[in-house]
Amino acid sequence: MSVLSGKKILLGVTGGIAAYKTASLVRLLIKAGAEVQVIMTPASHQFVTPFTLSTLSKKPVYTEFFNSKESGTWNNHVELALWADIMLIAPATANVLAKMANGLCDNLLLAVYMSAKCPVYIAPAMDLDMYVHPSTARNLTTLTSYNHVIIPAEEGELASGLIGQGRMSEPETIVAVLQESLNQNLPLQGKKILITAGPTYEPIDPVRFIGNHSSGKMGYDIAKEVAKQGGTVILVSGPTNQKIADPRVQVIAVMSASEMYEACHQHFNEVDVVVAAAAVADYRPKDVAMQKIKKNAEEFSITLDKNPDILASLGALKKQQYLIGFALETENEVEHAKQKITKKNLDLIVLNSLNDTGAGFGKPTNKVTFIDRDFTVQPMELKSKEEVAKDIVNKIIQHYE
Protein backbone atom coordinates (compact mmCIF):
# COMPACT_ATOMS: atom_id res chain seq x y z
CA MET A 1 0.00 0.00 0.00
CA SER A 2 1.38 3.40 -0.98
CA VAL A 3 1.73 6.20 1.54
CA LEU A 4 -0.48 8.16 -0.87
CA SER A 5 -3.36 5.74 -0.34
CA GLY A 6 -6.42 7.65 0.86
CA LYS A 7 -4.75 11.04 0.41
CA LYS A 8 -6.83 13.83 -1.13
CA ILE A 9 -4.75 15.63 -3.74
CA LEU A 10 -5.60 18.89 -5.49
CA LEU A 11 -3.79 18.94 -8.82
CA GLY A 12 -3.44 22.41 -10.33
CA VAL A 13 -2.69 22.37 -14.07
CA THR A 14 -1.43 25.55 -15.72
CA GLY A 15 -0.89 26.57 -19.35
CA GLY A 16 2.39 25.03 -20.45
CA ILE A 17 3.20 22.34 -22.97
CA ALA A 18 4.10 20.02 -20.08
CA ALA A 19 0.39 19.90 -19.20
CA TYR A 20 0.16 16.89 -21.50
CA LYS A 21 2.06 14.89 -18.85
CA THR A 22 -0.70 15.40 -16.31
CA ALA A 23 -2.77 12.60 -17.83
CA SER A 24 -0.05 10.14 -16.80
CA LEU A 25 0.39 11.94 -13.48
CA VAL A 26 -3.29 11.57 -12.60
CA ARG A 27 -3.20 7.88 -13.49
CA LEU A 28 -0.18 7.26 -11.28
CA LEU A 29 -1.72 9.11 -8.33
CA ILE A 30 -4.98 7.16 -8.69
CA LYS A 31 -3.03 3.91 -8.97
CA ALA A 32 -1.25 4.81 -5.71
CA GLY A 33 -4.64 5.03 -4.02
CA ALA A 34 -5.00 8.82 -3.93
CA GLU A 35 -8.19 10.76 -4.59
CA VAL A 36 -7.46 13.45 -7.16
CA GLN A 37 -9.35 16.66 -7.84
CA VAL A 38 -8.10 18.60 -10.86
CA ILE A 39 -8.28 22.39 -11.20
CA MET A 40 -7.15 23.89 -14.51
CA THR A 41 -6.36 27.40 -15.63
CA PRO A 42 -8.17 28.46 -18.82
CA ALA A 43 -4.86 28.49 -20.75
CA SER A 44 -4.13 24.85 -19.86
CA HIS A 45 -7.12 23.72 -21.93
CA GLN A 46 -4.99 24.38 -25.02
CA PHE A 47 -2.64 21.54 -24.05
CA VAL A 48 -4.84 18.89 -22.37
CA THR A 49 -8.61 18.67 -22.28
CA PRO A 50 -10.67 18.80 -19.07
CA PHE A 51 -12.55 15.76 -20.37
CA THR A 52 -9.35 13.67 -20.36
CA LEU A 53 -8.43 14.59 -16.80
CA SER A 54 -12.00 14.25 -15.59
CA THR A 55 -12.22 10.75 -17.04
CA LEU A 56 -8.95 9.71 -15.41
CA SER A 57 -9.68 11.31 -12.03
CA LYS A 58 -13.36 10.28 -12.04
CA LYS A 59 -14.24 13.78 -10.85
CA PRO A 60 -15.41 16.92 -12.63
CA VAL A 61 -12.58 19.31 -13.50
CA TYR A 62 -12.94 22.90 -12.29
CA THR A 63 -11.70 26.00 -14.11
CA GLU A 64 -14.12 28.85 -13.49
CA PHE A 65 -15.60 30.29 -10.30
CA PHE A 66 -19.12 30.08 -11.75
CA ASN A 67 -20.48 27.02 -13.49
CA SER A 68 -22.67 29.16 -15.75
CA LYS A 69 -24.28 32.55 -15.66
CA GLU A 70 -27.72 30.93 -15.78
CA SER A 71 -27.31 28.40 -12.98
CA GLY A 72 -26.01 30.82 -10.38
CA THR A 73 -23.88 28.05 -8.78
CA TRP A 74 -20.22 28.51 -8.02
CA ASN A 75 -17.17 26.43 -7.20
CA ASN A 76 -16.26 27.25 -3.62
CA HIS A 77 -12.48 27.77 -3.58
CA VAL A 78 -12.36 27.63 0.23
CA GLU A 79 -14.11 24.25 0.39
CA LEU A 80 -11.80 22.87 -2.29
CA ALA A 81 -8.74 24.08 -0.38
CA LEU A 82 -9.91 22.68 2.95
CA TRP A 83 -10.74 19.31 1.33
CA ALA A 84 -7.14 18.65 0.29
CA ASP A 85 -4.36 16.84 2.14
CA ILE A 86 -1.88 17.93 -0.55
CA MET A 87 -1.87 20.58 -3.26
CA LEU A 88 0.31 19.87 -6.28
CA ILE A 89 0.75 22.43 -9.07
CA ALA A 90 2.18 20.74 -12.14
CA PRO A 91 3.17 22.20 -14.47
CA ALA A 92 3.77 25.57 -12.83
CA THR A 93 4.59 28.16 -15.49
CA ALA A 94 6.75 31.23 -14.91
CA ASN A 95 3.60 33.35 -14.98
CA VAL A 96 1.86 31.28 -12.29
CA LEU A 97 5.00 31.13 -10.12
CA ALA A 98 5.15 34.95 -10.20
CA LYS A 99 1.50 35.24 -9.22
CA MET A 100 1.86 32.72 -6.39
CA ALA A 101 4.96 34.43 -5.02
CA ASN A 102 3.39 37.87 -5.10
CA GLY A 103 -0.19 37.17 -4.07
CA LEU A 104 -1.94 37.81 -7.38
CA CYS A 105 -5.24 36.01 -7.59
CA ASP A 106 -7.01 36.21 -10.94
CA ASN A 107 -8.40 32.70 -11.44
CA LEU A 108 -9.93 29.79 -9.53
CA LEU A 109 -6.66 27.86 -9.20
CA LEU A 110 -4.87 30.78 -7.55
CA ALA A 111 -7.83 31.42 -5.25
CA VAL A 112 -7.71 27.80 -4.12
CA TYR A 113 -3.94 28.02 -3.67
CA MET A 114 -4.20 31.12 -1.48
CA SER A 115 -6.85 29.38 0.66
CA ALA A 116 -4.89 26.14 1.08
CA LYS A 117 -3.80 25.03 4.55
CA CYS A 118 -2.20 21.79 3.34
CA PRO A 119 1.38 21.19 2.11
CA VAL A 120 1.99 22.61 -1.37
CA TYR A 121 4.26 20.99 -3.98
CA ILE A 122 5.29 22.83 -7.15
CA ALA A 123 6.73 21.34 -10.34
CA PRO A 124 7.98 24.23 -12.52
CA ALA A 125 8.07 23.93 -16.31
CA MET A 126 9.21 26.54 -18.82
CA ASP A 127 11.88 27.25 -21.39
CA LEU A 128 15.56 27.39 -20.43
CA ASP A 129 15.98 31.18 -20.50
CA MET A 130 12.83 31.68 -18.45
CA TYR A 131 13.89 29.10 -15.87
CA VAL A 132 17.29 30.71 -15.28
CA HIS A 133 15.95 34.27 -15.31
CA PRO A 134 16.65 36.08 -12.00
CA SER A 135 12.96 36.80 -11.46
CA THR A 136 12.09 33.07 -11.66
CA ALA A 137 14.91 32.24 -9.25
CA ARG A 138 13.65 34.91 -6.86
CA ASN A 139 10.06 33.63 -7.09
CA LEU A 140 11.16 30.05 -6.41
CA THR A 141 13.15 31.25 -3.39
CA THR A 142 10.09 33.14 -2.15
CA LEU A 143 7.86 30.11 -2.56
CA THR A 144 10.40 27.95 -0.73
CA SER A 145 10.26 30.46 2.13
CA TYR A 146 6.51 29.74 2.30
CA ASN A 147 7.49 26.13 3.16
CA HIS A 148 6.39 24.90 -0.26
CA VAL A 149 8.30 22.00 -1.80
CA ILE A 150 9.82 22.73 -5.21
CA ILE A 151 10.25 19.70 -7.46
CA PRO A 152 13.08 20.94 -9.67
CA ALA A 153 12.74 20.99 -13.43
CA GLU A 154 14.81 18.42 -15.29
CA GLU A 155 17.35 18.82 -18.07
CA GLY A 156 16.50 17.77 -21.61
CA GLU A 157 15.11 18.90 -24.93
CA LEU A 158 12.60 21.72 -24.55
CA ALA A 159 9.68 22.74 -26.73
CA SER A 160 11.77 25.58 -28.18
CA GLY A 161 14.39 23.11 -29.37
CA LEU A 162 16.91 24.22 -26.76
CA ILE A 163 18.63 21.70 -24.55
CA GLY A 164 18.78 22.53 -20.84
CA GLN A 165 16.88 22.73 -17.58
CA GLY A 166 13.21 23.57 -17.71
CA ARG A 167 11.36 20.31 -18.42
CA MET A 168 8.76 19.44 -15.82
CA SER A 169 9.84 16.42 -13.79
CA GLU A 170 8.42 13.19 -15.09
CA PRO A 171 5.19 11.99 -13.45
CA GLU A 172 7.02 9.04 -11.86
CA THR A 173 9.53 11.43 -10.28
CA ILE A 174 6.79 13.70 -8.95
CA VAL A 175 4.95 10.78 -7.35
CA ALA A 176 8.21 9.51 -5.83
CA VAL A 177 8.92 12.97 -4.35
CA LEU A 178 5.44 13.07 -2.79
CA GLN A 179 5.87 9.60 -1.32
CA GLU A 180 9.35 10.28 0.06
CA SER A 181 8.27 13.60 1.55
CA LEU A 182 5.27 12.04 3.25
CA ASN A 183 7.36 9.14 4.52
CA GLN A 184 9.81 11.50 6.21
CA ASN A 185 6.99 13.17 8.10
CA LEU A 186 5.33 9.98 9.32
CA PRO A 187 5.63 9.36 13.07
CA LEU A 188 6.79 5.74 12.82
CA GLN A 189 9.32 6.29 10.06
CA GLY A 190 12.41 4.21 10.90
CA LYS A 191 10.60 1.98 13.41
CA LYS A 192 10.23 -1.78 12.93
CA ILE A 193 7.27 -3.49 14.58
CA LEU A 194 6.73 -7.22 15.07
CA ILE A 195 3.03 -8.13 15.07
CA THR A 196 1.48 -11.54 15.64
CA ALA A 197 -1.98 -12.22 14.27
CA GLY A 198 -4.59 -14.90 13.87
CA PRO A 199 -4.99 -18.28 15.59
CA THR A 200 -2.55 -21.15 15.84
CA TYR A 201 -3.53 -24.66 14.80
CA GLU A 202 -2.11 -27.53 16.85
CA PRO A 203 -2.32 -30.78 14.86
CA ILE A 204 -3.99 -33.90 16.26
CA ASP A 205 -3.53 -35.93 13.09
CA PRO A 206 -3.09 -35.01 9.38
CA VAL A 207 -6.67 -33.66 9.12
CA ARG A 208 -7.64 -32.45 12.61
CA PHE A 209 -6.30 -29.74 14.88
CA ILE A 210 -6.95 -27.76 18.04
CA GLY A 211 -7.62 -24.12 17.22
CA ASN A 212 -9.83 -21.14 18.00
CA HIS A 213 -12.16 -18.67 16.29
CA SER A 214 -9.66 -15.82 15.80
CA SER A 215 -10.04 -14.26 12.33
CA GLY A 216 -6.72 -12.38 12.48
CA LYS A 217 -8.44 -9.12 11.52
CA MET A 218 -7.25 -7.19 14.57
CA GLY A 219 -3.58 -7.99 13.94
CA TYR A 220 -3.85 -7.27 10.23
CA ASP A 221 -5.59 -3.94 10.89
CA ILE A 222 -2.78 -2.99 13.28
CA ALA A 223 -0.20 -3.92 10.63
CA LYS A 224 -1.95 -1.77 8.03
CA GLU A 225 -2.09 1.20 10.40
CA VAL A 226 1.58 0.86 11.37
CA ALA A 227 2.54 0.86 7.68
CA LYS A 228 0.30 3.86 7.07
CA GLN A 229 2.18 5.72 9.81
CA GLY A 230 5.56 4.95 8.25
CA GLY A 231 6.67 1.89 10.20
CA THR A 232 7.89 -1.38 8.74
CA VAL A 233 6.19 -4.55 9.90
CA ILE A 234 7.11 -8.18 10.39
CA LEU A 235 3.69 -9.83 10.55
CA VAL A 236 3.83 -13.37 11.95
CA SER A 237 0.45 -14.75 10.98
CA GLY A 238 -1.36 -17.92 11.87
CA PRO A 239 -3.91 -19.41 9.43
CA THR A 240 -6.32 -16.70 8.27
CA ASN A 241 -8.24 -15.43 5.27
CA GLN A 242 -7.01 -11.88 5.90
CA LYS A 243 -4.90 -10.29 3.15
CA ILE A 244 -2.40 -7.46 3.11
CA ALA A 245 -0.41 -6.05 0.21
CA ASP A 246 2.02 -3.40 1.35
CA PRO A 247 5.75 -3.22 0.68
CA ARG A 248 6.25 -2.15 4.30
CA VAL A 249 4.75 -5.40 5.60
CA GLN A 250 6.61 -8.72 5.53
CA VAL A 251 4.23 -11.61 6.20
CA ILE A 252 5.60 -14.79 7.78
CA ALA A 253 2.97 -17.53 7.66
CA VAL A 254 3.00 -20.07 10.47
CA MET A 255 0.68 -22.81 11.63
CA SER A 256 1.44 -23.79 15.21
CA ALA A 257 2.43 -21.99 18.40
CA SER A 258 5.92 -23.50 18.18
CA GLU A 259 6.38 -22.10 14.68
CA MET A 260 5.18 -18.67 15.85
CA TYR A 261 7.56 -18.85 18.81
CA GLU A 262 10.52 -19.56 16.52
CA ALA A 263 9.61 -16.77 14.07
CA CYS A 264 9.18 -14.20 16.85
CA HIS A 265 12.49 -15.08 18.49
CA GLN A 266 14.27 -15.01 15.14
CA HIS A 267 13.30 -11.35 14.58
CA PHE A 268 12.97 -10.01 18.13
CA ASN A 269 16.40 -8.39 18.37
CA GLU A 270 15.84 -6.31 15.22
CA VAL A 271 12.50 -4.73 16.20
CA ASP A 272 11.51 -1.72 18.29
CA VAL A 273 7.99 -2.83 19.19
CA VAL A 274 6.10 -6.09 19.58
CA VAL A 275 2.31 -6.25 19.35
CA ALA A 276 1.16 -9.75 20.29
CA ALA A 277 -2.35 -9.81 18.84
CA ALA A 278 -2.42 -13.51 17.95
CA ALA A 279 -4.70 -15.94 19.77
CA VAL A 280 -2.07 -18.58 20.53
CA ALA A 281 -3.21 -22.03 21.65
CA ASP A 282 -2.19 -22.65 25.26
CA TYR A 283 -1.81 -26.41 24.74
CA ARG A 284 -0.91 -28.84 21.96
CA PRO A 285 -1.41 -32.59 21.61
CA LYS A 286 1.49 -34.50 23.17
CA ASP A 287 1.43 -37.14 20.45
CA VAL A 288 0.43 -36.31 16.86
CA ALA A 289 -0.89 -39.26 14.87
CA MET A 290 0.81 -39.77 11.50
CA GLN A 291 -2.39 -41.18 10.00
CA LYS A 292 -6.00 -40.08 10.33
CA ILE A 293 -7.44 -41.37 13.61
CA LYS A 294 -10.34 -43.74 12.98
CA LYS A 295 -13.67 -43.39 14.73
CA ASN A 296 -13.64 -46.75 16.51
CA ALA A 297 -13.81 -46.25 20.27
CA GLU A 298 -16.80 -44.77 22.11
CA GLU A 299 -14.47 -42.46 23.99
CA PHE A 300 -11.29 -40.79 22.92
CA SER A 301 -8.88 -38.69 24.94
CA ILE A 302 -5.93 -36.51 24.01
CA THR A 303 -3.05 -35.74 26.32
CA LEU A 304 -1.98 -32.11 25.99
CA ASP A 305 1.35 -30.44 26.63
CA LYS A 306 1.65 -26.76 27.45
CA ASN A 307 2.83 -24.51 24.63
CA PRO A 308 5.66 -22.02 25.28
CA ASP A 309 4.42 -18.56 26.30
CA ILE A 310 5.70 -16.47 23.41
CA LEU A 311 5.15 -13.05 24.94
CA ALA A 312 6.55 -14.00 28.36
CA SER A 313 9.67 -15.37 26.69
CA LEU A 314 10.11 -12.11 24.76
CA GLY A 315 9.49 -10.09 27.93
CA ALA A 316 12.32 -11.97 29.64
CA LEU A 317 14.68 -10.98 26.79
CA LYS A 318 13.42 -7.41 26.44
CA LYS A 319 16.00 -4.64 26.20
CA GLN A 320 14.69 -1.45 24.60
CA GLN A 321 11.61 -3.02 22.96
CA TYR A 322 8.11 -1.74 23.72
CA LEU A 323 5.89 -4.78 24.36
CA ILE A 324 2.13 -4.79 23.89
CA GLY A 325 0.08 -7.83 24.80
CA PHE A 326 -3.59 -8.76 24.50
CA ALA A 327 -5.76 -10.35 27.15
CA LEU A 328 -9.13 -11.97 26.47
CA GLU A 329 -10.87 -12.51 29.79
CA THR A 330 -14.28 -13.58 31.06
CA GLU A 331 -13.98 -12.77 34.77
CA ASN A 332 -11.94 -10.47 37.02
CA GLU A 333 -10.73 -8.99 33.77
CA VAL A 334 -8.71 -6.02 35.01
CA GLU A 335 -6.96 -7.90 37.80
CA HIS A 336 -6.00 -10.78 35.52
CA ALA A 337 -4.70 -8.31 32.93
CA LYS A 338 -2.57 -6.51 35.55
CA GLN A 339 -1.07 -9.83 36.59
CA LYS A 340 -0.08 -10.51 33.00
CA ILE A 341 1.68 -7.14 32.73
CA THR A 342 3.90 -8.01 35.68
CA LYS A 343 4.39 -11.67 34.83
CA LYS A 344 5.29 -11.05 31.18
CA ASN A 345 7.17 -7.75 31.62
CA LEU A 346 4.80 -5.83 29.33
CA ASP A 347 4.54 -2.10 28.74
CA LEU A 348 0.88 -2.12 27.73
CA ILE A 349 -1.93 -4.64 27.62
CA VAL A 350 -5.07 -4.46 25.49
CA LEU A 351 -7.87 -6.07 27.46
CA ASN A 352 -10.86 -7.66 25.75
CA SER A 353 -13.81 -9.00 27.71
CA LEU A 354 -16.17 -11.55 26.23
CA ASN A 355 -18.79 -10.01 28.53
CA ASP A 356 -18.81 -6.87 26.35
CA THR A 357 -21.29 -6.90 23.48
CA GLY A 358 -19.51 -6.49 20.15
CA ALA A 359 -16.11 -7.67 21.42
CA GLY A 360 -14.26 -10.92 20.84
CA PHE A 361 -13.57 -13.23 17.90
CA GLY A 362 -15.13 -13.00 14.47
CA LYS A 363 -16.68 -9.56 14.87
CA PRO A 364 -15.96 -6.33 12.94
CA THR A 365 -15.94 -4.38 16.21
CA ASN A 366 -14.04 -4.49 19.46
CA LYS A 367 -14.27 -2.90 22.89
CA VAL A 368 -10.94 -2.69 24.68
CA THR A 369 -9.40 -1.33 27.83
CA PHE A 370 -5.80 -0.13 27.85
CA ILE A 371 -3.73 -0.85 30.96
CA ASP A 372 -0.11 0.31 31.11
CA ARG A 373 2.78 -0.90 33.28
CA ASP A 374 1.85 1.70 35.92
CA PHE A 375 -1.61 0.04 36.05
CA THR A 376 -3.35 3.10 34.62
CA VAL A 377 -6.69 1.83 33.31
CA GLN A 378 -8.22 3.49 30.23
CA PRO A 379 -11.55 2.02 29.05
CA MET A 380 -12.47 2.72 25.42
CA GLU A 381 -15.80 2.82 23.64
CA LEU A 382 -17.02 0.11 21.26
CA LYS A 383 -15.34 0.82 17.92
CA SER A 384 -14.59 -0.83 14.61
CA LYS A 385 -11.43 -2.91 14.65
CA GLU A 386 -9.87 -0.41 12.24
CA GLU A 387 -10.45 2.37 14.78
CA VAL A 388 -9.13 0.22 17.63
CA ALA A 389 -6.02 -0.42 15.53
CA LYS A 390 -5.51 3.35 15.22
CA ASP A 391 -5.81 3.72 19.01
CA ILE A 392 -3.21 1.00 19.56
CA VAL A 393 -0.81 2.52 17.03
CA ASN A 394 -1.33 5.93 18.65
CA LYS A 395 -0.10 4.40 21.92
CA ILE A 396 3.09 3.37 20.11
CA ILE A 397 3.50 6.84 18.63
CA GLN A 398 2.98 8.46 22.04
CA HIS A 399 5.67 6.21 23.51
CA TYR A 400 8.24 7.67 21.10
CA GLU A 401 7.17 11.32 21.33
UniProtKB/TrEMBL annotation:
- Cofactor field: Mg(2+); FMN
Domain spans labelled Flavoprotein: 7-179
Pathway(s) this gene product operates in, as recorded in its UniProt entry: Cofactor biosynthesis; coenzyme A biosynthesis; CoA from (R)-pantothenate: step 3/5; Cofactor biosynthesis; coenzyme A biosynthesis; CoA from (R)-pantothenate: step 2/5
Amino-acid positions noted as binding CTP in the UniProt annotation, renumbered to this chain: D282, K292, P308, D309, I310, L311, F326, K340, K344
Extract the ranges annotated as region (Phosphopantothenate--cysteine ligase): 193-401
The keyword Metal-binding is annotated on this UniProt entry: yes
Catalysed reactions listed for this entry: N-[(R)-4-phosphopantothenoyl]-L-cysteine + H(+) = (R)-4'-phosphopantetheine + CO2; (R)-4'-phosphopantothenate + L-cysteine + CTP = N-[(R)-4-phosphopantothenoyl]-L-cysteine + CMP + diphosphate + H(+)
Task: Give the domain of life.
Answer: Bacteria
Which Gene Ontology cellular component terms are annotated?
A: phosphopantothenoylcysteine decarboxylase complex
Keyword annotations: Decarboxylase, Flavoprotein, FMN, Ligase, Lyase, Magnesium, Metal-binding, Multifunctional enzyme
Q: Could you say which EC number(s) this protein's record lists?
A: 4.1.1.36, 6.3.2.5
InterPro entries documented for this protein: CoaB-like_sf, CoaBC, DNA/pantothenate-metab_flavo_C, Flavin_trans-like, Flavoprotein
Q: Which GO terms describe its biological process?
A: coenzyme A biosynthetic process; pantothenate catabolic process
Its family remark reads: In the N-terminal section; belongs to the HFCD (homo-oligomeric flavin containing Cys decarboxylase) superfamily.
Family annotation (NCBIfam families): coaBC_dfp
HAMAP family on file: CoaBC
Q: What is this protein called?
A: Coenzyme A biosynthesis bifunctional protein CoaBC
